[in-house]
Amino acid sequence: MTMGKIIFYEDRNFQGRSYETSSDCADMSSYLSRCHSCRVESGCFMVYDRTNYMGNQFFVRRGEYSDYQHMGMSDCIRSCRMIPMHRGQFRMRIYERENFSGQMHELTDDCDNMLDRYRMSDCMSCQVMDGHWLLYEQPHFRGRMMYLRPGEYRSFRDLGVNGMRVMSMRRIMDSCY
Question: Residue ranges of the domains in the chain?
Fold first, then answer.
């Protein structure tokens, strides 16, 4: 299994003190007073603008991210989660309403427009059985995003992503690494 490695920097353009990790970090304030840029040496990560994996999220893979504002962060990066590589099938059930109610559909592949494909105008809860997924605010994988790993998500509001409607979803595949 490939391990990820990410380096965070206090200032934009990889300046200031740095902190390196290959795992999840729920609160970066223990290592840096702020985080305004990062460099991904290997693997894939989700970075968050609030502690404990909450708030605005941004998917990063191998490369350089010189300014947190270009990632859609309202504040500096405050936590990160390493996304393990998944080989095998992908399966997720999406529900129209919270607590797994309303219309339900099962996905095993990407969906670039939930409204066109399922005639569903909203998705407020889901169950991820297999794989790791990114859910997007707009069709065609654009806008704010949410990372989901296997588990039950009774309400997306619990993830600290306020007012986000889900309109497309994509599997995090080997090609992301």
Answer: 5-83, 91-176
Q: What is the pTM of this model?
A: 0.90
Q: Which two tokens stand for residue 126?
A: 């889901």
Q: Is 48 exposed, middle or buried (0-12, 13-18, 19+ CB in 10 A)?
A: buried
One digit per residue, the tens of pLDDT, for the chain of length 177 reads 457 999 999 999 999 999 999 999 999 999 999 999 999 999 999 999 999 999 889 999 999 999 988 877 777 899 999 999 998 999 999 999 999 999 999 999 999 999 999 999 889 999 999 999 999 999 999 999 999 999 999 999 888 777 788 999 999 997 665
The domain defined by 5-83 carries CATH number 2.60.20.10? yes
**Distance from C-alpha of 169 to C-alpha of 114, rounded to nearest angstrom:** 8
Q: Which CATH architecture has domain 91-176?
A: Sandwich (2.60)
What type of residue sits at position 141?
F
